[in-house]
Structure to design on (880 residues):
C-alpha cells in the first residue's frame, strides 16, 4: 500500500541577505531580506520520502512563521497521509479550523502563511508518493476528486460545489491537446527584474534590452515612490521596449484610493496593461472604485490577498481585472483551487505573483493546472518571473525564450538544497555570521 | 520634565484554563482557554512607572502573539515616550509600518494583535505619566491633539483629517454635562453570561433571572449550533425576559451568506435587536447582503474585524448596523479613534465587544471616549459585559445596576495582579502544572 505516517517535522528559518544589493526593493519594501519559513515533514515511508513546504517572507518576522508552523504541527504528526488525501477538503478544514488557533486569524496573517507551508508540504509529499509533479497529480484527478479537495465554506454564494464540478467536467475536453501545446510552447512569463526601484536608468535600459533578447513580451515596473520619478522611469522603459511589448505597473499599496485614481491619470499615457496593488490589499470597495476610474487599464491584485473570502469579493465587486494568486499567502493548493475556479466563473484571468523565494517554482504548477483543467486558456494569462535565488532549489524552474516549461520531477518543486538550508539558516548559517546586527 | 525612556520589555504567556467548565463556549469556539499575551514596558521613570498591555487569545497560539510582541519590541526599546506622544499618529505608522514585519499582515492577524498589545501599553504608560485614567487623558486633549493621534492612510476616501477635526470640535459642546451624566448614571452594559452554548435550560433560566435582578436590560444568546436548538433556547430566554428586555443573537461566523439569511427568517420571531457575526468577518459584501435581507434586525460585527480598512468598508457598504470594536484585535487606541470617528460620520452606533481577558476593562474607556468626545450619545449604545476573570485585575470594572462606572485610577485598567501573572503563566505557573497534555 502506498501510504505513510507523518512522524515529525523539521523547520528552518532561512534568510537570504538580499537587502545588500537592493534586489527586490519597491516603494513599500525598501530593503527586504528574502526569506522562507521552511518545513520538512518526516515520514516512515519505505522510500524515505519527505514533504517540503515553505512560506515566503521578507526578513524580520520569519521566526514567527516558523513558530506558527510548529504550533500547527500537532494537527499532522502521527497521522497517515491516506487519512488526509482520502478527503482532502476535510483535511483542509481541519488544519484551518483548530478552534483555538483560528482566533489568531481567522485565516489570515502569520497563522495562514504557516498553514500554507504545511498544506503545500502535504501536497509535495503526496505528489512524491504518486511519483508525479504536482500539476500532473491534479491533472490526473477526476473532476469529482479535484472538487473534493476544496472547502466551500464562505464561498457558496459565489460558487457552489456543483458549479465547480460542471466547470471541471466541461474542461475535460481538450485536456490532452492543451498538454501537448504546453510541452511544445511552454507557459508565457513576464519579468520584473528590469523595473525595481533603486536601479539606475542605465541599469534599467540594460535590463530592458536583456529582457527583450530573452524573449519576454511583457515587462513590469515599480511605481509609487513619487509621480515625477515614476513618469521618468516609465518613459525610459517605453523608449527601450517600444509599443509592442506590454508594460505593467506595480504600486505596492502606496496610494490611497483618490490618490491612485489621480496618479493613474498621469501614468495612463504610458499605456500600462495593468496597475497592480494601487492601494491597501484589504480595500475591496477601493479597488472597485479605482478599477472603474482607470478603465481600460486593469487593476491587478492578490499577492497580499489573505484568503478565498477576499478573492471572492474582489471578483463579485468587479474590483479585480487580473487575479494574482500567491502560492504561500493563502493556505496552500486546496484554497488556490477554490480561487482558480471562482476566477474561471467570473471570467478573470489568473496571472500569479512570483519572485521571492521559490514562488516561481510553486506557481508554474498552479498556472499549468489552471490552463489544463480549469480555464483552459492562456489568453491574457502570464506568470511573473524574477531571476533571483533559483540556484538554491533542487528542481528550479526551466525558462526558455520567455516561457516556463513544465517541471517533470515528482513533487511541488519546493525543495531547497541541503547546503543552502545550512548556509542561509538565520540562527546557525555562515551567511549570517557577523551580519545579524544589520537586520534591525 | 515628565518623560521617560523605555528600557526593556517583559512578556508573559498567561492562560486561564476556562475550557474546564465551558465558560465562553460558542458554536465556533467549543473549548477556549482564555489567554493573554501580556507585555510590560519597563522604563527609567523616577516613579518606577510601567506600561502594561495585552492582547486576548483563546489558548493555543498565544505563544505566537508573545513572540510577535518580542519581534516588534525593537521599535520601542531605547526610545523616549515624548518622541512617541509628541506625534502619536507618526508613532502608530512607525510601529505598523516596519517594512519587513509588515509583510506578515499587513495590519492583520498575529502581527496586528501583538501591535495592539504594545500600542495599548504605550497608552497605559502615557496615562500613568499624566496621572489620569485613559479616558480622561483623551477627554482633556484638544481636538487637534486628538486627531493627530490618527494615521489616516487608506481611509481618506471615507473621512479626511479635516472632517474628523470638525466632528471633534462640534462635540466640545456639552462635554462637561455628559461627563456629569456619566458619573451619575454610568454607561449601560449587556450580559452574555446567560446565553452560552453548553449551558442547560435550567441554568439559562436561572441566569436570565439573575441578569434581570442585576438591572440588565439587554441579554445576548449564542446561536449557530443548529437551528432547532437555537429556536428552543431563544424561546426559553424570551419566556424568562419578556418583551421589554432586548435580545441579541451571536452566530460566531457559523453560517454562509444564504444560510444566514434563511436561518434569520426563522429566528426573527424572537425579535432579536441584532444578529452578530452571521458569517465570515472578512465578508463585507456578504454582510451587506444579509443586512439588507434581515431588516429591521441589525447586523453587528467587528470583534474579528482586522483593521480600520475593513471597518471603513463595512460602513461604506451599509453592511454593519452596529459597530463592535475590539480593544485588542486592531492596533490599539490610535486605530480605535479612527474607527470611532468613521462610525460617527456614518451614523453607526458603537457597542464594543468585551469579555475575554480584560476586554471589559479596556472597552469601558473607549465607550466613554465615544460618548464624551465623538458621538456624544448613548442612544442604541451598550457595552458587552461578561462576569469572568475580573478578579485578576488590579483595577477591575465597576458595574452597578447593569451600568459600567468610569474608572478613576491612572492608566488603561489593563494591569493584571502580580500573583495572577505568576500563577497562570503557561510555562511556569501552578495553574498549568500537570495540565499541559490537555491543551492539544
Amino acid at each position: 500500500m502506498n501510504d505513510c505516517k507523518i512522524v515529525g517535522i523539521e523547520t528552518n528559518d532561512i534568510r537570504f541577505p538580499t537587502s545588500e544589493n537592493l534586489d527586490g526593493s519597491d516603494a513599500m519594501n525598501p530593503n527586504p531580506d528574502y526569506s522562507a519559513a521552511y518545513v520538512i515533514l518526516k515520514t516512515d515511508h519505505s522510500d524515505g520520502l519527505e514533504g517540503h513546504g515553505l512560506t515566503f517572507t521578507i526578513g524580520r518576522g520569519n521566526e514567527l512563521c516558523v513558530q506558527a508552523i510548529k504550533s500547527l504541527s500537532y494537527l499532522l504528526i502521527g497521522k497517515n497521509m491516506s487519512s488526509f488525501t482520502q478527503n482532502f477538503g476535510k483535511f483542509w478544514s481541519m488544519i484551518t479550523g483548530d478552534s483555538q488557533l483560528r482566533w489568531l486569524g481567522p485565516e489570515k496573517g502569520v497563522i495562514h502563511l504557516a498553514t500554507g507551508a504545511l498544506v503545500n508540504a502535504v501536497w509535495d509529499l503526496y505528489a512524491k508518493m504518486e511519483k508525479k509533479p504536482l500539476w500532473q497529480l491534479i491533472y490526473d484527478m477526476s473532476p469529482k476528486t479535484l472538487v473534493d479537495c476544496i472547502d466551500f465554506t464562505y464561498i457558496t454564494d459565489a460558487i457552489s460545489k456543483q458549479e465547480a464540478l460542471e466547470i471541471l467536467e466541461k474542461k475535460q475536453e481538450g485536456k490532452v491537446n492543451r498538454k501537448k501545446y504546453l510541452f511544445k510552447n511552454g507557459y508565457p512569463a513576464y519579468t520584473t527584474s528590469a523595473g525595481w526601484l533603486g536601479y539606475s536608468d542605465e541599469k534599467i535600459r540594460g535590463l530592458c534590452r536583456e529582457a527583450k533578447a530573452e524573449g519576454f513580451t511583457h515587462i513590469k515596473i515599480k511605481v509609487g515612490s513619487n509621480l515625477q520619478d515614476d513618469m521618468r522611469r516609465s518613459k525610459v522603459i517605453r523608449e527601450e521596449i517600444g509599443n509592442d511589448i506590454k508594460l505593467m505597473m506595480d504600486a505596492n499599496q502606496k496610494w490611497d484610493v483618490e490618490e491612485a485614481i489621480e496618479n493613474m491619470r498621469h501614468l495612463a499615457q504610458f499605456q500600462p496593461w495593468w496597475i497592480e496593488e494601487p492601494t491597501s490589499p484589504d480595500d475591496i470597495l477601493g479597488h472597485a472604485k479605482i478599477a472603474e476610474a482607470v478603465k481600460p487599464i486593469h487593476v491587478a491584485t492578490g499577492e497580499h490577498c489573505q484568503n478565498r473570502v477576499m478573492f471572492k469579493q474582489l471578483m463579485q465587486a468587479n474590483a479585480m481585472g487580473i487575479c494574482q494568486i500567491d502560492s504561500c499567502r493563502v493556505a496552500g493548493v486546496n484554497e488556490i483551487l477554490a480561487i482558480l475556479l471562482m476566477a474561471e466563473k467570473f471570467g478573470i484571468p489568473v496571472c500569479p505573483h512570483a519572485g521571492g523565494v521559490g514562488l516561481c517554482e510553486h506557481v508554474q504548477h498552479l498556472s499549468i493546472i489552471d490552463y489544463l483543467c480549469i480555464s483552459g486558456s492562456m489568453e491574457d494569462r502570464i506568470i511573473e518571473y524574477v531571476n533571483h535565488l533559483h540556484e538554491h532549489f533542487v528542481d528550479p524552474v526551466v525558462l526558455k525564450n520567455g516561457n516556463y516549461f513544465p517541471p517533470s520531477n515528482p513533487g511541488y518543486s519546493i525543495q531547497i538544497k541541503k547546503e543552502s538550508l545550512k548556509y542561509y539558516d538565520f540562527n546557525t548559517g555562515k551567511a549570517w555570521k557577523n551580519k545579524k546586527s544589520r537586520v534591525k
